[in-house]
Structure formats: structure tokens, C-alpha cells
Amino acid sequence: MYIMREYVKSGGGQMYFGSVRFFKDLIVIGIATILALSLGLAIFFGVKYSSLKKEVEENSAVPVISDVGDNTADEKKSLEEFYNDMTKQGYDDDEILSMIEEKSPEAFDKYVANVRMIRNAPAYTKAFPDLYVEAPKKNGISDKTIYLTFDDGPCENTWNILSILDKYNIKATFFMCGADTEEEIAVMKKCVEKGHTIGIHSVSHDYEKIYTDVDSFLADMQETSDNIYNATGVKPNIIRFAGGSVNSYNKKISKELCEEVTRRGYVYFDWNVSGQDASQNATWTSVYNNILNGVGNRNNAIVLLHNKNVSVYVTEDIIIALKNRGYSFDRLTNETTPSQFVLPTDEELSEQ
Ligand SMILES: [Zn+2]
Prior knowledge:
By secondary structure, the protein is an alpha/beta fold. The protein has helices at 2-10, 20-61, 72-88, 93-103, 105-120, 156-167, 182-193, 207-210, 214-232, 254-263, 284-295, 309-324, 346-351, and strands at 145-153, 173-176, 197-200, 238-239, 267-268, 273-274, 300-306, 328-329.
């Protein structure tokens, strides 16, 4: 025992391994290693974490908009969301625009165009949100076809026009001013029932009132559309301006009017043959000749008539004469290629 203890005290030889001191040292070294390793890992991950955190913060401060789709609608939405997020975070417009320009030049171009378009749009584009229809995908017009149109109804004469059209199994178009009485509502309904087209004309037909500005025009158009819809259950999608798309009352705003109704999905129809039956001097002979001569050798024609007495007298004879010339008759739809007057140029407007 003694010898053994002495030997250990001397610390020499192979007996160190497995000795108490060996185990003490082993424990100390183990603890030190674990501490060092933990510290190292802690420092490593600490640095890594803080750089990751910084990266995340940087990226969320300037979100990447590369996930913006090719689809314009998606893109617009994403850009709007992006814009709103950035605004909430306190960035001003110029800063947001630079972010978009940097991240996606293509989106930048579209976004700027979109922002400018919305900011520069006239106030009336935001008015009358119900005054929209689906625009036609394509337009066309049939050969050897006459499109008879009757403006300013409904009235008592409309019944007579309907029965003439019925007799020859012809479809036509009525640009209506709206119904006030039970009788007028009934004839409007009959037009739809018989398969004719009803288009918007003007509930007031007061040129000075409706052509004051675009807002006044749209208010009248909305009222006319509502009136027709309430009477027939059909929302009209074609229009004829009172007095035509370009006239002495609306010349200065005609371009805006035409652009605005088109932007809202409506197709507007002028005419290329007029019976001039609304004129005070109109007679059976004058209306008949105006139409027959006006149609001439045309391949097709959009013919302007009204709901006047003279119009009723002459319509049957016009139908017979044009049938004899080989024409068919049809109603207008928003897919018919419209006849439209030439809009005044900027020079013409500035000369006034
Ligand atoms: Zn009219």
C-alpha cells in the first residue's frame, strides 16, 4: 500500500493513466473543451443570426417585386399592394418609384404609366360607376343589309312601327328617350319581346342641358339607361347621341364624350342615311327619296328615322322598295360595326 502511494506521488511512469489525477485532469480538460466549443458556436451563430436578421430586415424594407406576374391585372394589384405597404412604412412617392425602378424596370414603366393615367384622368371617369357595360370583342356588318333605326320613342306611333316590322318579319333598332307612362312602358316591353334592339338616346333630349359638360351628359345617359332597364329588364349597351356624336352643341366636348362612352364599354351609332323625317317640312315623298337615294348602291346602311307620323306612313314603302333592290334588314347590336361621324381635329377646335 505504502509503496503504491509513493509511486503515485512521484507522478512517473505509466501509472498516471487511470490514476485519480488523470481523471481530475480529464474532467477539467473536458469541461474546458465544452465551454470553448459552446462559446465558439455561440459566437458563430450569433454573428450568423445577426447578419441573417439584417438581411431579412433589409429585404422587407425594400420588398422584391420580381414575383409580379406577366398578367397586367396581377401586376397592377401587386404594385398597388406594394405602393400601399411602402406608403404605410412612411416612404414618399419618389422613394417608392425609385425602389420599383431598381427592382423591376419593366414594372416601373407600367406602374408609372398607370399612376399617371389615374392621376390625370378627368373627374367624370370616377362618376356613375354603374354606367358600364361589357365591350364587344369584335365588330362586323352584314352585306346587302339595311339597319333601320327609330329615334325619340317610345310613343303611340311606336305601336304602328312595330306592326309594320312584324308584317315583314324585320328586326330594327329603337334609340329611346325613356318611358313615362304605362302605355310607353308597355310598348318598350313589346319592342324587346319582338326581338328589336333598344339603345340609349336621351331622357331630356335638351341639347343645351346635356352638352354643358361630360358630367351632365353622363347624368342624362344614366337616367335613360335606368329608365329602359326598369321598363324592360334589359340594360342597353348601344347609344345614339341626341343630334349625333358631333353637333353644333357638343362640338367642343364631342371627343371626350365619344371616348368616355367607349371607355365605359358602349358602342355609339351615328347614321349614314337620314330620312330627315324630323324636319318640319318632311313629307312622304321627301323622306322616301332621302332614304332611297341615300342608300343608293351602298352595300349596307344605317338609316335614321324617328317615331313621327310621316315616318309611320313611309316605313312600309321603304321596306318594300329596298327588299326589291335585294336588301335584307337587321337590328343593330354592340357587335355591329358602327357608322360614326368624324370628330373635329384640334386645329378645327382651336379655330373656333
Ligand atoms: Zn333624337
